[in-house]
Amino acid sequence: SEVYMNGKWLPAAEATVSVFDRGFMFGDGIYEVTPFYGGKPFLLQEHLDRMSYCLKEIDLEFEKKDLKKLIFEAVDRAGLAQNDCAVYLQVTRGKAPRTHHFPQQVEPTFLMYAFAVQLEGFEDRKLTIKLSPDIRWQRCDIKSISLMANTMLNSEAIQKGHFENVLFRNNRITEGSHSSIFFIKDQKVYTHPEGPEILSGITRRFVIELCTELEIEVIEEAVSLEELSAMEGIFLTGTTTQILHVTSVFQNDRELYNSSEAGAITKKLQEAFRKKTRGL
Ligand code: PMP
Fold this sequence. Notes:
Blueprint: E1 2-5, E2 8-11, H1 22-26, E3 29-37, E4 40-41, H2 44-57, H3 67-77, E5 85-92, E6 109-116, E7 126-133, H4 148-159, E8 164-169, E9 172-176, E10 180-185, E11 188-191, H5 202-213, E12 217-219, E13 233-238, E14 242-251, E15 254-258, H6 264-278
GO molecular function: transaminase activity
Family: Belongs to the class-IV pyridoxal-phosphate-dependent aminotransferase family.
Keywords: Aminotransferase, Transferase
């Protein structure tokens, strides 16, 4: 398959990076994943805006003319123009002699490719999660390619048979290793407020808007570990995660929460989400 790298379309095997690329050496870069439903972009501008925010936060100057057109081209070239797929975009600070401080006047390395992804059947999926201390850094609002903590955490969850490792910091639940989390109690929906502790999930924000449309009250407040067992519903959101009902939450090997079926609010949101993404 083809990837777009530094201004050229190349077979993936020919797209290589210098060992001195700061992405390779420092994880000095950011990424984005933007979905296409049946070949149609969903919230593309929102994803690009978040990418711009992250670039600004890490002081990386990157301008790409016709980026949207290139993203569509990636989908086309991958033969996915009618399919469910996503485009991965990554910008690193580029190749420079190794110094901790940001080098000046370096050409960023830009990589992009489209890949097929399953965006069907999320309403029927059931999954369990585990809780762990949030060992990530303090700028989780930046979609950094340095994902050591996230990959360690998710691997731990997968190894124990769970879909996701959901994190807490100062006793408050932040988000998953690669998803946002929502809670339902007394007909109200709770999620951690935006800020440096979480990624501003595009799906998270979209689900908040859906709640407003459906006249479901949303409270952007973190849920504590103690409050967890009293929740009436829990779901995860994300670009490829969509809206997934959580059936159990474990801490160490203890089950803190159980709910075999999605409740009315989760189902309503899933249905509204399907309509918005599929137009039916
Ligand atoms: N939090 C983290 C840490 C993530 O990696 C992701 C997935 N990119 C999300 C939340 C969900 O964000 P989005 O809805 O933009 O995919």
